[in-house]
UniProtKB/TrEMBL annotation:
<dbReference type="InterPro" id="IPR036928">
    <property type="entry name" value="AS_sf"/>
</dbReference>
<dbReference type="GO" id="GO:0003824">
    <property type="term" value="F:catalytic activity"/>
</dbReference>
<dbReference type="InterPro" id="IPR023631">
    <property type="entry name" value="Amidase_dom"/>
</dbReference>
<protein>
    <submittedName>
        <fullName>Amidase</fullName>
    </submittedName>
</protein>
<feature type="domain" description="Amidase">
    <location>
        <begin position="24"/>
        <end position="415"/>
    </location>
</feature>
<dbReference type="Pfam" id="PF01425">
    <property type="entry name" value="Amidase"/>
</dbReference>
<dbReference type="InterPro" id="IPR000120">
    <property type="entry name" value="Amidase"/>
</dbReference>
<feature type="region of interest" description="Disordered">
    <location>
        <begin position="127"/>
        <end position="153"/>
    </location>
</feature>
<comment type="similarity">
    <text>Belongs to the amidase family.</text>
</comment>
Amino acid sequence: MLQNELSAVEAVRLMRGGQMSVSELVEACLARIAAREEAVAAWSFLDPDLVRAEAARLDRLNPGARGPLHGLPVGVKDVIYTKDMPTGHNSPIYESDSPRVDAAPVKTLRAAGALIFGKTVTTEFAATSRGGTTRNPHDPERTPGGSSSGSAAAVADNQVPLALGTQTGGSTIRPASFNGVYALKPTWNVISREGLKVYSLTCDTLGLYARAVADLDLLADVFRLGEPAAPRPLEGVKIAVCRTPMWERADTATRDALALGEALLREAGATVTALTLPPLFSGLSEHHGVVLAHEGKSAFLSEAVSHPDLLHPDFMGMVENKAGLDADQVRQAYDVGARCRIVFDEIASAYDAVLAPSVTGEAPRGLAWTGDHVFCSMWTFLHVPVVNVPGFRGQAGMPVGLSLIGARFSDRRLLAVADAVGALFAARGSWASGRGAAAA
């Protein structure tokens, strides 16, 4: 196995033990990027000299000063501030803008010894389904998803072991599914969003990418998402299968993946139950859209008044309330969301996890559109933790993931279940998860 293909857990173990230097890992990652950047285009900013200098500094640290993420390269979505790199939001307004401050999650990662590797491509302001330059590493003719396009693609392509994304609709989980990697959208607001571009304070959530659940657990420790949960053998685990009110939007690949996932869990001894959500949830996706349109109005006002010539009409439309939302619609959307959170926590607490689609199907062809987030937005609006578990592929050979969902603040228990479920899907599903595009 090449050094850039190591899991984060294995890489940090070797570096902390002196069996591999940070510089060696960095050179392997840089070599992979050099070989693949033309095909994948995951990075909006990458300075090899800066990365090498930071690797050398970390290599000089005494063993006792090495943190839990010592030397691990982390890609950072380009809507998250980094003090030594530009933060451009994929917008002409902020081209080459350098705020010279780290976002709170970046500070936390640096304090734990992580090496902030570079900025990954995002869609504009992480607030649109219009595609960017990044391509899916499994098929460059297809989208990697969005808006965390570069982060998901870089991890899937073995360019870095870890990356940060964000999710307001489906911007972490959808790219994870399309690229065949693990991702955690944690419970809303358990990781500080200070220093991230704001779109919707009600929904914006930092997301985490890795090629193994153990690597997500490593990040969960650093971000203090609760005590690690004990490993979960699948026999006796309670899983609710929820097709959601949007099930008719699922195509054959997702329908087959969910059916196979359910069958494999039953064979492994899990207690699997069909879950139909109450009628209150039927319009949740539409209410989510109302909240985004309403909060986008204030989020993009400053750009609209200061750079009206550079702001895309999509965002100008939010500021000008082109959707024609009135106060009653907005109040109803917030109130239904609040009621549904209470109800869903009660439902989900009866299970170890809820299994649901991550996406409508395989990654669409072309780069102009990042795909439908309809199977993600409901969970984002509910503020619950979600893990994309890879393990399947559709007729075109592209990855299709499934989501595991829990009640709010059950992140660590959900990761324990995801570890067992992911191992099962990798062994018995039709997609060898965790290997990256090079092995596909």
